[in-house]
Structure of Bifunctional protein PyrR:
Amino acid sequence: MDTNSSDARPVLEAPDIARMLTRIAHEIVERAKGADDVVLLGIPTRGVFLARRLADKLEQITGRPMPVGSLDITMYRDDLRLRPARALARTHIPGEGIDGRLVVLVDDVLFSGRTIRAALDALGDIGRPRAVQLAVLVDRGHRELPIRADYVGKNLPTSLRETVRVQLAEEDGRDTVLLGVREPAPATER
């Protein structure tokens, strides 16, 4: 989601993001009763980085390495014909697999719910988890599908004119969440 960089303002900074991920990790351990069968799957691009960070925090809490992977949803999206072609990302499922395990999908921003619907479809083609939960850094509302996150770093109510952009050091050189205003579509010539 692009923001007009001159209008975008930071609403979360690196310390906020780190604190939220620590809280989410503790919530996962509490709800999963120790996180023995948890597998984290990040949705590319930034969801993968967040999943890796969560895995590190979960390992610090539990003392055990946490299986982490990525789940490409490109071919499961319902907007393929509406947008330009995009490169496929990589799906990596940890060696333990997902069958009978608690899979926590990790993404940066929850908006309409369509990305998560696509992730659920992709997951169904890979295996049969015991349960699926969702962890997001930012929930901005405006759901179009009946999907909600189990773990939320920050609920950030927005208008449809606003955009939310997560920047992470691994991809963008810094950790921040920016709130901006969508630029109006150019008027078509008559």
About this structure: The chain is about 25% helix and 25% strand. The two ends are 29 Å apart (CA to CA). Helices lie at 14-31, 46-62, 114-126, 169-172. The mean pLDDT is 91.
